[in-house]
Amino acid sequence: MVTTTPLEAELLELAGSVPDPELPVLTLRELGVVRAVHARGADSVEVELTPTYTGCPAVEAMSLDIERVLREHGVREVTVRTVLAPAWSTDDITDEGRRKLREFGIAPPRVRSASGPVRVELGPTRTHAPGTHGTPGEEELDPVRCPHCGSAETELLSRFSSTACKALRRCLACREPFDHFKEL
Amino acid sequence: MTTTPAKDTALTTAALALGDDALVLSHRLGEWAGHAPVLEEEVALANIALDLLGQARVLLSMVGDEDELAYLREERAFRNLQLVEQPNGDFAHTIARQLYFSTYQHLLHTELAAGDGPFAPLAAKAVKEVAYHRDHAEQWTLRLGDGTDESHTRMQRAVDALWRHTGEMFQPVEGLDADWTGLETAWLERITEVLRRATLTVPEGPRTGAWTAGAGRQGLHTEPFGRMLAEMQHLHRSHPGATW
């Protein structure tokens, strides 16, 4: 079993306090992307970072921010290593992270219970048809709620929004468009 | 200059096959930027391209320098399927290519993710991303196939035109531990079901054979690929080492 020293725990806390470059309301810890910090000697550490999406362009900015914060804390040598396994999931976002997303106007991802085979609904042929949610395996999940008014009556406008991790939706009750952090 | 991978191992063969598929399709999808029919599709295709580019970077970095492999190899050194290098055509052609490839990629990565080979970590991530790509392609196939007369005609033309490039996907790749026959059966079932629901006819022509397409894995490519590579590699070759 790998043990974490008090120093490593402290540095992990620090690395995790870095804000996400694209969603600065969230910290990297709340996003669930900082996996571990290993001390490699007196003042050298290695940080394990996992990307949300394989092609996420924010990984470089995250690495630089982590390096800067740890260096300011007196660590001379910081190496940020990208790890893929186990694959990041939106279930890794903390409850606090979900709450902050909602306050920020982004519908948080819903928690998926089992990782069974992904089912795709082939029925609707219009994206605004009722029941089209744009999430594979959709029917096992609760409806996406509007982050502004809380209504469960929302429709999909586009499966991909300003970033790959979000879909664009519109609330049918208050008519506001909003981003939905897609389940992954 | 041609950069040859240092070791011609099974790992290299497999990583180049998967990585080149992702890289080349990513570039083709990127060509839609500024040309997609609606803004939402512009963003969707660019996001799918970005996912694929991320996968390509991981895969190519497993066996060499990603920039050298992407920008300095000659056409014959690329190991991608001929399907992914086909020009975008009209929107229906792009959707048909997405439907065929994302269905294949989802099945293959699901199998690789379940194993314990060197590609399992990437495959486990990619399969979740590709589920959205496949959903996007299937929904559009339904809308266009079961849409207007014009969209139906174009979608049928697209699935017919690309059909001859689909047999190549199931030629075994050295270094990839997969049940290729099982993959092909599952792929055909899924595609048949989607096309049927989209009121489209499953193409009847051969999917592979002596005269048909299918030697991308051996480095033989179709005519449009050279021009795509020229555009993709031009900047890097003209300004070696340039950064911003």
List keywords for this structure.
heterodimer; A: 184 residues; alpha/beta; GMP Synthetase, Chain A, domain 3; 2 domains; 4-stranded mixed β-sheet; 4 helices; 20% strand; elongated; B: 244 residues; mainly alpha; Ferritin; 9 helices; globular
Written overview of the protein:
The complex is a heterodimer of chains A (184) and B (244). With 184 residues, chain A is α/β, with parallel strands linked by helices. Chain A has two domains: 6-82, 2-Layer Sandwich (GMP Synthetase, Chain A, domain 3), CATH 3.30.300.130; 93-113 and 131-181, no CATH class. Helices cover 21% and strands 20% of the residues of chain A. In chain A, the strands form two sheets. Chain A has a four-stranded mixed sheet. A three-stranded mixed sheet of chain A has the order 1-2-3. In chain A, strand 2, helix 3 and strand 3 form a beta-alpha-beta unit. In chain A, helix 1 (6-16) crosses helix 3 (59-72). The model of chain A is unreliable at 123-133 (pLDDT under 50). Chain B is built from nine helices and no strands. In chain B, helix 1 (10-30) packs antiparallel against helix 2 (39-61), helix 5 (91-114) packs antiparallel against helix 6 (120-145) and helix 6 (120-145) runs antiparallel to helix 7.
